[in-house]
Amino acid sequence: MTGNYSTREYREKLYDDLHVRLRDTAILMCAIFIASIGLNMNSTAVIIGAMLI
Questions:
Q1: What are 8-39's pLDDT values in tens digits?
Q2: Does residue 26 sit within a domain?
Q3: Does the record bear Membrane in its keywords (predicted)?
Q4: In a domain? residue 11
Q5: Which secondary structure element, helix H or strand E, spans residue 9, and what is its range?
Q6: What's the CA gap between 37 and 31, in Å, rounded?
Q7: Angle (nearest 5°) at CA 52 between 47 and 32
Q8: How much is the pLDDT for 49?
Q9: Domain of 33, in residue numbers
């Protein structure tokens, strides 16, 4: 079932379901750092490894 939501209702539903934890943010930052190193080294394996994190 789909409904027609106003922008305000849609934003409220989105923010109610959004939970950002420090742990998730730290893991994301580590993956970004590793991917950056892989790009600087031109290493496909390191970039793919960062994507797996």
A1: 988 888 888 888 899 999 999 999 999 999 99
A2: yes
A3: yes
A4: no
A5: helix 7-17
A6: 10
A7: 55
A8: 93
A9: 20-52
Instruction: Report how far residue 47's alpha carbon sits from residue 31's, in angstroms, rounded to the nearest whole number.
Output: 9
Residue 8 CA from chain centroid, whole number: 24
What is 19-49 written as a DSSP string?
---HHHHHHHHHHHHHHHHHHHHT-HHHHHH
Does a structural domain hold residue 33? yes
Number of domains in the chain: 1
* Cβ-Cβ contacts under 8 Å for 10 (sequence gap 6 or more): none
Which residue shows structure tokens 């409904």?
3
Contacts of 32 (CB under 8 A, 6+ apart): 50
d(Cα 50, Cα 44) in Å, to the nearest integer?
Answer: 10
